[in-house]
Amino acid sequence: MSIMDSGTPQRIVAVLLRHWYLIAGSWPRFLDLCYWPIVQMILWGFIQTFLTMQSDYFAQAGGILLGGVMLWDVLFRGQIGLAISFFEEVYSRNLGHLLATPLKIGEYIAALMLVSLMRTVVGLFPATLLAIWFFGFSLYSLGISLAAFFFSLIAFGWAIGLFVAGLVLRYGLGAESFAWALIFALAPLCGVYYPTSILPAWVQVLSGLLPASYIFNGMRAVLIDHVVRVDYLLAATGLNIVWLAAGIAGFLIFHSQARDRGMLLQLGE
Questions:
Q1: Alpha carbons 82 and 231: distance in angstroms, whole number
Q2: Averaged pLDDT for residues 27-54
Q3: pTM recorded for the entire structure
Q4: Percent of the chain having pLDDT more than 70?
Q5: Of 71, 102, 111, 239, which alpha carbon lies 20 to 30 A from 158's?
Q6: Residue 34 to residue 25: CA distance in whole angstroms
Protein backbone atom coordinates (compact mmCIF):
# COMPACT_ATOMS: atom_id res chain seq x y z
CA MET A 1 0.00 0.00 0.00
CA SER A 2 1.39 3.38 -0.95
CA ILE A 3 1.91 6.09 1.66
CA MET A 4 -0.15 8.52 -0.42
CA ASP A 5 -3.39 7.92 -2.34
CA SER A 6 -6.22 9.93 -3.89
CA GLY A 7 -7.53 10.91 -0.48
CA THR A 8 -4.19 12.33 0.63
CA PRO A 9 -4.83 16.05 -0.12
CA GLN A 10 -8.15 16.00 1.76
CA ARG A 11 -6.63 14.38 4.86
CA ILE A 12 -3.65 16.76 4.86
CA VAL A 13 -5.99 19.75 4.52
CA ALA A 14 -8.15 18.36 7.32
CA VAL A 15 -5.19 18.42 9.74
CA LEU A 16 -4.19 21.86 8.49
CA LEU A 17 -7.73 23.20 9.06
CA ARG A 18 -7.86 21.66 12.53
CA HIS A 19 -4.83 23.70 13.58
CA TRP A 20 -6.03 26.82 11.75
CA TYR A 21 -9.35 26.73 13.63
CA LEU A 22 -7.44 26.06 16.85
CA ILE A 23 -5.28 29.16 16.30
CA ALA A 24 -8.00 31.41 14.85
CA GLY A 25 -10.40 30.52 17.66
CA SER A 26 -7.93 31.32 20.44
CA TRP A 27 -6.64 34.88 20.64
CA PRO A 28 -3.82 33.92 23.10
CA ARG A 29 -2.46 31.43 20.54
CA PHE A 30 -2.77 33.97 17.72
CA LEU A 31 -1.15 36.71 19.80
CA ASP A 32 1.69 34.40 20.79
CA LEU A 33 2.50 33.81 17.11
CA CYS A 34 2.95 37.53 16.46
CA TYR A 35 4.27 38.69 19.84
CA TRP A 36 7.83 37.33 19.88
CA PRO A 37 8.80 38.27 16.29
CA ILE A 38 7.63 41.83 16.96
CA VAL A 39 9.43 42.04 20.32
CA GLN A 40 12.68 40.72 18.85
CA MET A 41 12.40 43.04 15.85
CA ILE A 42 11.99 46.08 18.12
CA LEU A 43 14.75 45.02 20.52
CA TRP A 44 17.32 44.31 17.82
CA GLY A 45 16.20 47.30 15.81
CA PHE A 46 17.18 49.64 18.63
CA ILE A 47 20.43 47.73 19.21
CA GLN A 48 21.25 48.10 15.52
CA THR A 49 20.37 51.79 15.58
CA PHE A 50 22.93 52.26 18.34
CA LEU A 51 25.61 50.13 16.68
CA THR A 52 25.16 51.88 13.35
CA MET A 53 26.28 55.11 15.02
CA GLN A 54 29.26 53.34 16.61
CA SER A 55 30.53 50.83 14.07
CA ASP A 56 31.64 51.17 10.45
CA TYR A 57 30.82 47.50 9.86
CA PHE A 58 27.14 47.87 10.61
CA ALA A 59 27.05 51.21 8.83
CA GLN A 60 27.92 49.44 5.57
CA ALA A 61 24.43 48.03 5.28
CA GLY A 62 21.44 48.91 7.35
CA GLY A 63 19.48 45.89 8.48
CA ILE A 64 22.24 43.32 9.06
CA LEU A 65 21.05 42.65 12.59
CA LEU A 66 17.36 43.07 11.82
CA GLY A 67 17.64 40.83 8.79
CA GLY A 68 19.51 38.26 10.85
CA VAL A 69 17.01 38.22 13.68
CA MET A 70 14.00 37.98 11.37
CA LEU A 71 15.52 35.21 9.27
CA TRP A 72 16.50 33.43 12.50
CA ASP A 73 12.85 33.63 13.48
CA VAL A 74 11.95 31.80 10.26
CA LEU A 75 14.24 28.94 11.29
CA PHE A 76 13.12 28.98 14.91
CA ARG A 77 9.40 29.20 14.12
CA GLY A 78 9.66 26.61 11.38
CA GLN A 79 11.04 24.18 13.95
CA ILE A 80 8.99 25.15 16.98
CA GLY A 81 5.80 25.58 14.93
CA LEU A 82 6.01 21.98 13.77
CA ALA A 83 6.88 20.72 17.24
CA ILE A 84 4.11 22.68 18.97
CA SER A 85 1.52 21.49 16.44
CA PHE A 86 2.59 17.94 17.29
CA PHE A 87 2.53 18.68 21.03
CA GLU A 88 -1.02 20.03 20.74
CA GLU A 89 -2.14 16.53 19.79
CA VAL A 90 -0.10 14.99 22.60
CA TYR A 91 -1.40 17.38 25.26
CA SER A 92 -5.00 16.73 24.23
CA ARG A 93 -4.34 12.95 24.11
CA ASN A 94 -5.56 13.02 20.54
CA LEU A 95 -2.48 11.65 18.74
CA GLY A 96 -3.37 7.97 19.05
CA HIS A 97 -6.90 8.62 17.88
CA LEU A 98 -5.67 10.77 14.99
CA LEU A 99 -3.27 8.09 13.77
CA ALA A 100 -6.04 5.46 14.08
CA THR A 101 -7.96 7.26 11.31
CA PRO A 102 -7.20 6.68 7.59
CA LEU A 103 -4.60 9.46 7.91
CA LYS A 104 -1.24 8.00 6.91
CA ILE A 105 1.98 8.91 8.67
CA GLY A 106 3.39 10.51 5.51
CA GLU A 107 0.29 12.66 5.22
CA TYR A 108 0.58 13.66 8.87
CA ILE A 109 4.19 14.75 8.34
CA ALA A 110 3.17 16.81 5.30
CA ALA A 111 0.34 18.39 7.30
CA LEU A 112 2.69 19.28 10.17
CA MET A 113 5.00 21.02 7.69
CA LEU A 114 2.12 23.04 6.25
CA VAL A 115 0.90 24.00 9.73
CA SER A 116 4.44 25.11 10.57
CA LEU A 117 4.55 27.19 7.36
CA MET A 118 1.21 28.79 8.23
CA ARG A 119 2.27 29.61 11.78
CA THR A 120 5.58 31.08 10.60
CA VAL A 121 4.02 33.33 7.95
CA VAL A 122 1.23 34.51 10.30
CA GLY A 123 3.71 35.22 13.08
CA LEU A 124 6.45 36.91 11.07
CA PHE A 125 4.49 39.02 8.57
CA PRO A 126 3.41 41.76 11.06
CA ALA A 127 7.01 42.11 12.27
CA THR A 128 8.31 42.64 8.72
CA LEU A 129 5.80 45.47 8.22
CA LEU A 130 6.58 47.11 11.56
CA ALA A 131 10.32 46.93 10.77
CA ILE A 132 9.66 49.12 7.71
CA TRP A 133 7.64 51.58 9.79
CA PHE A 134 9.94 51.74 12.82
CA PHE A 135 13.41 51.41 11.29
CA GLY A 136 13.03 51.84 7.55
CA PHE A 137 14.34 48.33 6.91
CA SER A 138 12.43 46.02 4.61
CA LEU A 139 13.23 42.34 4.65
CA TYR A 140 11.72 42.30 1.19
CA SER A 141 14.70 44.35 -0.02
CA LEU A 142 16.50 41.00 -0.25
CA GLY A 143 14.47 40.49 -3.42
CA ILE A 144 13.93 37.11 -4.98
CA SER A 145 16.65 35.64 -2.78
CA LEU A 146 14.35 36.14 0.22
CA ALA A 147 12.11 33.31 -1.01
CA ALA A 148 15.14 31.00 -1.28
CA PHE A 149 16.36 32.05 2.17
CA PHE A 150 12.90 31.56 3.66
CA PHE A 151 12.24 28.07 2.32
CA SER A 152 15.78 26.90 3.02
CA LEU A 153 15.56 27.98 6.65
CA ILE A 154 12.07 26.61 7.22
CA ALA A 155 13.06 23.27 5.67
CA PHE A 156 15.99 23.05 8.09
CA GLY A 157 13.58 23.91 10.91
CA TRP A 158 11.25 21.11 9.78
CA ALA A 159 14.09 18.61 9.90
CA ILE A 160 14.91 19.49 13.50
CA GLY A 161 11.24 19.70 14.49
CA LEU A 162 10.49 16.24 13.09
CA PHE A 163 13.44 14.74 14.95
CA VAL A 164 12.30 16.36 18.22
CA ALA A 165 8.73 15.17 17.66
CA GLY A 166 10.10 11.68 17.07
CA LEU A 167 12.02 11.82 20.35
CA VAL A 168 8.80 12.69 22.17
CA LEU A 169 7.02 9.80 20.42
CA ARG A 170 9.69 7.40 21.58
CA TYR A 171 10.60 8.76 25.01
CA GLY A 172 7.51 10.73 26.06
CA LEU A 173 7.13 14.34 27.15
CA GLY A 174 10.37 14.15 29.09
CA ALA A 175 12.06 14.87 25.75
CA GLU A 176 9.91 17.96 25.12
CA SER A 177 12.65 20.33 26.28
CA PHE A 178 14.69 19.42 23.19
CA ALA A 179 12.19 21.44 21.15
CA TRP A 180 13.60 24.57 22.77
CA ALA A 181 17.18 23.54 23.55
CA LEU A 182 18.34 21.92 20.32
CA ILE A 183 17.73 24.85 17.99
CA PHE A 184 19.47 27.34 20.30
CA ALA A 185 22.46 25.02 20.63
CA LEU A 186 22.95 25.34 16.87
CA ALA A 187 22.57 29.14 16.80
CA PRO A 188 26.25 29.98 17.49
CA LEU A 189 27.28 27.78 14.55
CA CYS A 190 24.83 29.37 12.11
CA GLY A 191 26.41 32.84 12.10
CA VAL A 192 23.12 34.64 12.64
CA TYR A 193 24.73 37.94 13.68
CA TYR A 194 28.33 37.48 12.49
CA PRO A 195 30.21 35.86 9.61
CA THR A 196 31.07 32.23 10.27
CA SER A 197 34.62 33.03 9.14
CA ILE A 198 35.34 34.41 12.63
CA LEU A 199 34.76 31.00 14.18
CA PRO A 200 37.72 28.73 15.04
CA ALA A 201 38.72 26.48 12.14
CA TRP A 202 37.34 23.28 13.68
CA VAL A 203 34.05 25.01 14.51
CA GLN A 204 33.80 26.23 10.91
CA VAL A 205 33.83 22.58 9.83
CA LEU A 206 30.76 21.95 12.00
CA SER A 207 29.16 25.17 10.78
CA GLY A 208 29.65 24.03 7.20
CA LEU A 209 27.34 21.09 7.85
CA LEU A 210 24.40 23.38 8.67
CA PRO A 211 22.28 24.81 5.82
CA ALA A 212 21.48 27.89 7.90
CA SER A 213 25.13 29.01 8.01
CA TYR A 214 25.13 29.44 4.21
CA ILE A 215 21.85 31.34 4.33
CA PHE A 216 22.99 33.89 6.90
CA ASN A 217 26.30 34.39 5.12
CA GLY A 218 24.31 34.77 1.91
CA MET A 219 22.09 37.39 3.53
CA ARG A 220 25.11 39.47 4.46
CA ALA A 221 26.48 39.13 0.92
CA VAL A 222 23.21 40.59 -0.43
CA LEU A 223 23.06 43.45 2.08
CA ILE A 224 26.74 44.41 2.05
CA ASP A 225 28.10 43.38 -1.35
CA HIS A 226 24.76 43.38 -3.25
CA VAL A 227 25.63 39.95 -4.59
CA VAL A 228 23.44 36.84 -4.55
CA ARG A 229 25.72 33.93 -3.71
CA VAL A 230 24.19 31.13 -5.76
CA ASP A 231 26.87 28.75 -4.49
CA TYR A 232 25.64 29.32 -0.93
CA LEU A 233 22.04 28.66 -1.98
CA LEU A 234 23.01 25.44 -3.76
CA ALA A 235 25.04 24.25 -0.78
CA ALA A 236 22.14 25.00 1.57
CA THR A 237 19.69 23.19 -0.73
CA GLY A 238 21.85 20.07 -0.87
CA LEU A 239 22.32 20.00 2.89
CA ASN A 240 18.62 20.60 3.45
CA ILE A 241 17.79 17.51 1.40
CA VAL A 242 20.07 15.46 3.64
CA TRP A 243 18.82 17.02 6.89
CA LEU A 244 15.15 16.78 5.92
CA ALA A 245 15.54 13.16 4.83
CA ALA A 246 17.25 12.40 8.14
CA GLY A 247 14.52 14.21 10.10
CA ILE A 248 11.75 12.32 8.32
CA ALA A 249 13.58 9.00 8.69
CA GLY A 250 14.12 9.67 12.40
CA PHE A 251 10.45 10.49 12.91
CA LEU A 252 9.35 7.34 11.06
CA ILE A 253 11.76 5.14 13.03
CA PHE A 254 10.68 6.60 16.37
CA HIS A 255 7.02 6.32 15.34
CA SER A 256 7.50 2.65 14.46
CA GLN A 257 9.19 1.97 17.80
CA ALA A 258 6.48 3.82 19.72
CA ARG A 259 3.73 1.93 17.87
CA ASP A 260 5.39 -1.44 18.55
CA ARG A 261 5.67 -0.57 22.25
CA GLY A 262 2.06 0.62 22.42
CA MET A 263 3.09 4.14 23.46
CA LEU A 264 0.92 6.15 21.08
CA LEU A 265 -2.14 6.02 23.33
CA GLN A 266 -0.10 6.69 26.47
CA LEU A 267 1.43 10.00 25.39
CA GLY A 268 0.07 12.95 27.34
CA GLU A 269 -0.60 10.90 30.46
A1: 29
A2: 65
A3: 0.80
A4: 83
A5: 102
A6: 15
